[in-house]
Amino acid sequence: MSRLLVLGQFSMIALLLLGGGWDLPWWAWSIFGLGLAVFLWAALSLGKGNFTILPDPRIGNQLSTMGIYSYVRHPMYTAVLLCGMAVTFGAPSPLRWAALFVCAVVLVIKIRYEEGQLTARHPSYTQRMSNVARLFPGVW
Q1: Residue 49 gets which letter from DSSP?
Q2: Whole-number Å distance between alpha carbons of 128 and 65
Q3: How much is the pLDDT for 140?
Q4: 51-88 burial by CB neighbour count: b if 16+ within 10 A, else e?
């Protein structure tokens, strides 16, 4: 299941990047830059030995609650959606709209799966994350 979710995610990222032009307006580049900044902040906040592209936690992982992880549970997915929205809204194409929709669905399924895995490994996960947004603070 986890490898299929990653395949779906990266396939949709490829379609978002290659599914249209790159003549983006300034505001779309700003959103894209914000997505890259969120990704970088997440990578720096994650903690040593925790990164994996699979939604299965690594053996011996630690729950990260510092940096951006104190605001968002899945900031790397937030980054993917911000960059995807930037290119889709900034240089729209039917392929990009479809890819953004499918990417969002895949990421929601991946979040549900990943949170089940994290709860199984760290029984305190649900309680510790109860006041932390999944993707966008104040939204979900």
Answers
A1: T
A2: 9
A3: 82
A4: eeeebebeeebebbeebbbeebbbbbbbbbbbbbbbbb
Hey, what amino acid is at 69?
A: Y
Query: Which two structure tokens, joined as six digits, stand for 103?
Result: 């990417």
What is the rounded distance in angstroms from the CA atom of residue 100 to the CA atom of residue 29? Answer: 17
- Is 0.85 surpassed by the pTM of this model? yes
- Alpha helices (H) in the chain, listed in sequence order: 2-18, 26-45, 75-90, 94-121, 125-128
Query: Amino acid identity of 128?
Result: R
Residues 2-54 pLDDT 10s: 899 999 999 999 999 999 999 999 999 999 999 999 999 999 998 777 888 88
